[in-house]
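Blackboard transcription, Thursday session:
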Amino acid sequence: MTEEKALSWSVLVGKSRPLAPPLTRDLMGIYTLWQRDVIRLWRDRIRLVGSFIQPLLFLFILGGGLSPRMGAMGVTGSGGTLGYQGFLFPGIVAMSVLFTASFAGVAIVWDREVGFLKEVLVAPLSRTAVVIGKILGGATNSVVQGSLILLLFPLFHLHPSPGRILLAFLVMILIGLTQTSVGILLGVRMTSSQGFMVLMNFVILPLFFLSGALYPLDRLPPWLAMASRADPLTYGVDLLRRALTGVHFHSMLTDLVSLGLFMGTMATLSVVLFNKTD
Amino acid sequence: MIEARHLSKVYKARKGDRTAVDDISFSVGEGEFFSFLGPNGAGKTTTIQMMVALLKPTKGTITIDSLDVVASPHEVRQRIGIIFQDPSLDDRLTAWENLEFHGRLYGIDAESRRTRGNFLLEVLGLADRKDDLVRTFSGGMKRRLEIARGLLHAPRLLILDEPTLGLDPHSRRSVWEHIHRVRKEVGMTVFLTTHYLEEADSSDRVAIINGGKIVAEGTPDRLKKDLSSEMLTLETNTPEKVVTYLLESYPKLSGMIRKEEEIVSFPMPSGEALSPWDLLRALPFPIREASVRRPNLDDVFIHYTGSELKGQTSEKGVRP
Ligand SMILES: Nc1ncnc2c1ncn2[C@@H]1O[C@H](COP(=O)(O)OP(=O)(O)OP(=O)(O)O)[C@@H](O)[C@H]1O
Ligand SMILES: [Mg+2]
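(Written on the board underneath:)
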């Protein structure tokens, strides 16, 4: 019996194809880590539903309460006036992407806390692949969350064309990638998820408030206008609003270039920092 | 298989540096079962982290399978299966998913992941739980799953860092039965760290590590024989007096006498033509009970690390 099994293990091992070369292994690793994050979100229904509630509160309670006092927020692509709820909607889509994406940072701290990160770090896999897998996983989850909110657009009398919905989708991906990178950047060195949550409050809320998700950017005091320009989310919100309502503040080129630059910088920084961390 | 030369690790800390591993050298042969035995904080985990390139040695070199760990970490990791001291499974995934993802990270093809995974789950007695979430597993089952996972990429070296820590005696036995079974059926070099003496006892060779230094090394038998051929245990109403007397008559015993309540035990002083019987007869105090036994690894461990005596009346070698 034992003899037979010993044989079968060595036969099993002997029969295997040679191991994948490093680059294939890295790509496979990225795919695997991405898939793991997606599976985990899918299993965690409470999180999925929970993060659906908060945007609804903003949209219907905050939006519903403020909208009678706010008047017209701009002229839509089709020439109508845009109410406050319609104005708020793209901002809240961006918010839901932002919040979920930042969660990816917590996820990496959790992985460290529960020890799974060690398993990943001793695998024959480049650190760069680990970070990319994490960024893609977090971004995917955040885009899924954002899309759930995006689907509510008919409730706010918005009628974007299919092309514009596609644009909105692409913008969500850009926001997701950028903010996941920010989350990971902050999470890489942290060892306690509680500490991370506290830190995150100091980062997420300013990003959200400064982005123009809640108010128009055209009559801000100078210091606020400056701060708002330094916020990557500003450009995402602006582009989303342009796609969904036609109202915007920056030019499309400014939005796309800034968002792209922020994304590249944040992703690179998180890769560099992770490579340097024990 | 493993060659460590003058390996040191100094952790930088705000309040001065801490030397966790202090210039140790050891080698482990192909197929050998080698144990690192040491108390908490001895530097066992730190050594392992240097073996898998999670930490860079401050000084010295370590090679696995003739590959330098610092120079080619990925090639080395491909050859190592590691079971960490602390849990490292994703408990939101199923047992099978944990194996599957591990296999992919190590670049194993799909067919082999399936056949090997099933084989290992069978050997480790987890086949019927393969699609359950890991969070529903007991501690012992998680350990076994980690072992299966560590073996999936057919490593030549299996590193077990205190694999039975925190398990009850029953699960500990079961985990060990499985480790022995795996060793028989899969066959590989094993590097174990532990502070359970009976676990180290079953290994081919033991190194006792204390305060970052290897203080003794050899086969368990050799280590026991080097300590003494016999251990004497006495039960008496006047343990203090007995200890004082022994130290005066046999200065060699300094640091080797253990006292627990009314029980005093020590190795027979070496190099004297003295039988236990002679020693007992010469003792000017009443003895309730006396017994002679072969030394075990426990005695060796305490002799070299003094871990039960540390910080206490060490000049007498007596535990109050
Ligand atoms: N990341 C770290 N930073 C600073 N000091 C550390 C770190 N990790 C371990 N040490 C110190 O290094 C020494 C050796 O620790 P190590 O974890 O290697 O011991 P060990 O033999 O594995 O102990 P145990 O049996 O408790 O697991 C200890 O004094 C510990 O406090
Ligand atoms: Mg340890």
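Lecturer's comment: Chain A touches chain B through 38 residues (CB under 8 Å).
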